[in-house]
Amino acid sequence: MKERRKHKRLPVIKDLAEPIELTLSDPATNKTRHLPGVLTNLSAGGMDLVLLGAIEGKHAIRLNMHLPGLDRFEIEGKMVWSRIKGNTSVVGIQFTKIDQDHVKQLTHMAEAFWECEDRIKTKAPTICFHGCTYWDLCEKPAKLKNYPKPSPVKSRA
User: Fold this and answer.
1) Percentage of residues of the chain with pLDDT beyond 70
2) Which ranges constitute the DSSP H helices of 19-140?
3) Which of 64, 65, 119, 145 allows an S-S link to 124, with CB 3.0 to 4.6 Å?
């Protein structure tokens, strides 16, 4: 199956997705609604979210994003699909307004993620390195094996 997306997707790994609040605008009713959600994947052109509430229709959205390794930034977009699952919705958002610096950063992060996947599959001798643009988001076992998290500092009594 041919990939239709213009930008490579970047999965958002456990413990890294901060809860976000999405501002939805319905042009038909001119009403605004706020829904909390969790980011599941991201690219320079859009994202998928799980929202804590049922939502249907094509809404305009606005949100402030913050991910490790990036400054907080604002995004505007439109909901291009949604699937209701009980009291939640899984939605796809296409960005309509995003700063070009963040487009470049997200593109580099996604490329780094997939290059890392290739290095893991080919069992390359070096998989992770500190200069990687995905480093701050990475929770892959290959990284953790080579770079253990520092142990807690013991206080002196």
Assistant:
1) 81
2) 100-121
3) 119
